[in-house]
Amino acid sequence: MKKCFFLIVVFSFVLSSCSSTKTVVKKTTKPTTKVDRIVSNALEYKGVRYKFGGTTNRGMDCSGVVYVAFGSENVQLPRISRDMAKRGKKISLSKVKKGDLLFFRTSKSRRSINHVGLVVSNIKGQIRFVHATTSRGVIVSTLSEKYWNKAFVKATTIL
Fold first, then answer.
1. Which one of the listed residues 38, 62, 113, 155 is annotated catalytic?
2. What is the pTM assigned to this prediction?
3. Beta strands 55-56 and 137-142, pairing class
4. Rounded to whole angstroms, how far apart are CA atoms 129 and 20?
5. Is-contact 139 130, C-beta < 8 A?
6. Active site residue 56
7. Which tens digit of pLDDT belongs to each residue from 101-155?
């Protein structure tokens, strides 16, 4: 009987010491600046399929991503990329930063801007931008990719 009682006490002691593990709280860093929140909002659509004129999780086009991301922070932009290109201040690629817009002419038959991307980062001249393509939906690309570099027209800063 003493042996059973002793084992129960030891067993309960072991269990109580095991259950006192620390709870780890994972900190999620929330974007702090308006630009960070705009870019973060745009990146939430990564993987969403392409849909002409789309502005929801069911489908997005390039200007839809930018329009919704800026709109989430009450920054009103035109809905169409060629009209967006008329807003903001034109800047050189060397001055491009997170939150700026890149404009492209991807059609050989048209002379106007027809594509826009939102700069996610510019690290040592490696410019990454979020946008929507007809083939892959909302993705992040780099301006150093031959296709995008060739189609590039201008960069603007909105904020």
1. 62
2. 0.80
3. unpaired
4. 46
5. yes
6. no
7. 999 999 887 789 999 999 999 999 999 999 999 999 999 999 999 999 999 999 9
